[in-house]
Amino acid sequence: MEVIKISPRGYCYGVVDALQLVRQTAKDPSVPRPIYIIGLIVHNRHAIEELTNLGVITLDGPERASILEQVTEGTVIFTAHGVSPLVKRRARERGLNCIDATCPDVTVTHDLVRDLVANGYYILYVGKKWHPEPEGVLGEVSGHISLVEDEADVDALRLTGEQRAKLAISTQTTLSQWDTRRVIDYIKTLYPQAEVHIDICAATQSRQEAVVAQAKGADLTVVVGDPRSNNTNRLVQVSEELAGVPAVRIDLSQMKPEWLKGKKRVAVTAGASTPSQLTREVIRYLEQYQPEM
Ligand code: SF4
Fold first, then answer.
1. Ligand 1 — pocket residues by CB below 6 A?
2. What is the DSSP letter of 80?
3. Residue 106's closest CA among 140, 82, 123, 142?
4. What is the CATH number of domain 2-11+202-288?
5. Domain 13-103 has CATH 3.40.50.460
6. Catalytic annotation present for 133
7. Is the entire prediction scored with pTM above 0.90?
8. Which residues contact 204 (CB under 8 A, 6 or more apart)?
9. Which tens digit of pLDDT belongs to each residue from 14-66?
């Protein structure tokens, strides 16, 4: 089987740094125990298993604030997705040792929305509902921001005259840049005065652009990553909608032979939270696969 190894793919610097910080913390005997991660450090169960084996406990749940309620002592690590100031304050009030693994690209958005609100803006934040990153950003400026995922959410907005007058748009870091553009264009048709800030990170953009450019001509794109990883799911979408190549998302080597039936060229990429080892296994499997003649 001919395999196109799409590049860049896989771990981004934000994920690498967050994992490194957790590993260092786990090895440091001076850090108060137990050590908890509030939410999934990255959306990949293999990466989480590695940290569990180092003695770090991952707590998951729908909201960071409610997850934190489970912790009464020790150390809490905030994930690369960022957390709201409320979560940080509650952790301090509980006397917990806090370690922040927020990706610098997410911090940029936190700083931006705070600055915008300080300058009198109301914000429309384009992002995914129930994803931890919007939870943290919205918590920075609650009451001055609305989360919109699509055009229907924009239609449902009931903005006051004051909010309309000074409106800004900000975005989640891991969205599809083309979907985001579509939603922003729609917002601009209703609110042409809105000031646009696109905060999709460079790692997400470059991985999406690489799929569009390099998957073309393949019979199938295999995206290695976890179903909860937003940027992984966006790579599947980008392959299908922009490169015109059918795509499957897999976790570990769950390759189903029927996916490969009749395929001669397969492109492989991976989400920003996918360990390289998993992607290497998939590539090895495909390179050794003999298509039926
Ligand atoms: S995907 Fe982007 S924002 Fe998220 S951790 Fe990686 S570099 Fe940071």
1. 12-15, 80, 103, 105-106, 173-174, 201, 203-204, 231, 272
2. T
3. 82
4. 3.40.1010.20
5. no
6. yes
7. yes
8. 12, 173, 174, 175, 177, 231, 234, 272
9. 999 999 999 999 999 999 999 999 999 887 888 899 999 999 999 999 899 99
